[in-house]
Design brief:
Elements: H1 4-11, E1 29-32, E2 35-41, E3 44-45, E4 48-49, H2 61-82, E5 90-101, H3 109-124, E6 131-137, E7 146-154
Parallel strand pairs: 5-6
Antiparallel strand pairs: 1-2, 2-7, 3-4, 5-7
């Protein structure tokens, strides 16, 4: 029988992907005690970059929100891997640190990152409410629009 997190994912029509492997000299996540620190996740969909470019230029706020949501899905996939495949071990999302590739005049980073925050609350319920940082960056790896890292508590 699946638990509440798995049931919410199913209700939302979200199937977590196989998490991507690290592409440089780092690991996808590190666990210390009950905390799991997940490396920055990109807006991958079906293994391909889904949203590239800069907010305030070639990327709309709606596409930025979609990118943040995809990053959140990939964070959950990494958290499931860190939990030995049992996503129900997630006790809470502690913090998200999010980067938005944008023009210097763009100031709606929090609105973009709400795509990730809202998804986490939908999937994890009250345990998905978290501390957060949302900042603009002049560029991100592979020209992605959004990159997000996270800290989860496992049980």
């Amino acid at each position: 029988m699946s638990g509440p997190i798995s049931q919410r994912l199913k209700q939302l029509g979200i199937e977590l992907p196989t998490p991507p492997a690290a592409v440089a000299n780092y690991v996808p996540f590190v666990q210390t005690g009950n905390l799991v620190f997940i490396s920055g996740q990109l807006p991958l969909e079906n293994g391909k970059l889904a949203v590239t470019g800069k907010l305030g230029d070639s990327v709309s706020i709606e596409d930025g929100i979609r990118a943040a949501r995809l990053c959140a899905i990939n964070l959950l996939a990494q958290a499931r891997a860190a939990s030995g495949g049992d996503i129900e071990r997630i006790r809470r999302l502690v913090r998200l640190t999010a980067f938005v590739a944008c023009t210097p005049a763009f100031t709606d980073q929090p609105k973009v990152i709400n795509g990730a925050s809202d998804l986490m609350a939908e999937v994890l319920g009250e345990a998905g409410r978290h501390a957060r940082v949302a900042v603009g960056a002049p560029s991100l790896p592979l020209d992605v629009a959004v990159e997000i890292e996270g800290i989860f508590e496992l049980g």
